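Quick one - first record:
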Amino acid sequence: MNGSRARMVVTGRYGQVVQSLLERGRYSDRFEVIAIGRPELDLSAPDSIEAILRNVHPDVIVSAAAYTAVDQAETEEDAATVVNGVAAGKIAALATELDVPVIHLSTDYVFDGSKPLAYIESDPVAPLGAYGRSKLAGEKAVAEATSNHVILRTAWVYSPFGKNFLKTMLRLAEGRDRLNVVDDQIGNPTSALDIADGILKVAANVLSSDASELRGIFHMAGSGEASWADFAVEIFAQSALHAGPTVDVARIPSSQYPTQAKRPVNSKLECSKLGEIHDVRLPDWRKSTAKTVARLAQQQYKEQGQG
């Protein structure tokens, strides 16, 4: 423990949610956030997990590190399953042994996207590809290892950190007049910084109470919905406000942008359960998109020696 703060140990080091938790943790009176990733913690070698995590004496573990290469997983399903399934179970088993809660991040990819409405937590799972299957294996492994778990499914994550759709759009817009963007996949763009805020609140709740209703599966995604093309249009509208890159968006069907892994047509997650039970409601995706674009514009301004 650091003073009166609880020790939140997060798996991973450079992922968007990990970076967001580290940033938010610097201003938290409740938690000291400690990230442990490669090379010390390698989820592709699950037997190494126990000793590393035990040595940092966590009060709560956030299982955030994952194999996230969706298309690559189609040819590396065994590797994806070791990281997203086996390792997730090992982390949860250690949490049981240490008598601490585990918060595990999962994904909309556990669903097949055929439902016309937003998915609720109890809807049948039916992943379309290897990545979704590996993440579903992780959900099951965590639930089997400990009842003191919270599984948070999220979707379409973006942030000022790492690689993501928002940053890719801004990069591709440099020197172009037009971008083709898929318009027939619908989901909830979700800020990793908003996810971090939600995780901190959920962690505080489960540390403060043994109530079973605080545990289980919850959906945590940005409010509102969009297609990828809608998301891109909003990104460029915000970028234009900061004299940043902007292009015309050509709305195309996913059939014109084939990928190795099939994506769910509908990735919308219904998040009211999280709001009712944990009092966590993520902001509208447009508001968080605006904040992220403004921050990236400010960073670029400073890097160019103007600030």
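second record:
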Amino acid sequence: MSFHIISLVLFAAFLHAGWNALLRGGADRLWSMTVMCLAVAIASAVMALFLPSPAKASWMYAVLSAVLHVGYNLFLVRSYQVGELGQTYPISRGSSPLLITVAASAFAGERVGMGALFGIALVSGGIVSLAFKGRRLAVPSLPYALGTGCFIAAYSVTDGIGVRLSGAPMAYTAWMCALWGILMPPVYIGLRGARSLFTVRPGLIIAFIGGLVSLLAYGIVIYAMSGAPMGAVSALRETSVLFAALIGYFFLGETLTVRKMLACAVIAAGVIIIG
């Protein structure tokens, strides 16, 4: 992986941790997530108008990814309703790089060297260890956090294949994200009604900005996957847990223990090996 790809993905990791912290800190996380998706839909639709259309072969992957993203949204919101950012986030993000590496090998024919595999294993292990308290996973939302990780792996591999078939990474990203953003509001309305969605509340602007940040972060990742191994890109992206641990400590009142700091060192070592 080239230096500029590594730098871009690490920047995306920082952005990703930031918008997850905004979501975790919100009072109504499902509403905040839906507002974020509306922001994503609007910005993506505007971008798509100025970009060439992706190749026809990639459209089925864009649609599938949009649906998978909605499932990811629902599981992520549910996991944050009962779990801390510093625990739930590492489990969901840490379980995905190895899943992505396996799926990319099975469905996209990718082969990853032993050194990169070792780096991915270090990153995943370090991330998941952040979620432990003592010798056990003290996370009430564990099933939802793991489910979130599975959705991450599914849509990442789907987009990795789709963007390579598209011939236009930016256009693919714009259309997929527009579809994703459009799908989420009907789901919210079905659960809570239209009046609840369109009521102006405190945090509206923050949630809207969070949506734009999430779009930029994932756009960078899709661009990186157009030419770099999906598992390695995913492992680098999941270093966002380092930023999440710091944000949780400084802004959300969560603890930063010796275990967390050691886990961060393991993750950093894995990133160096992958690079």
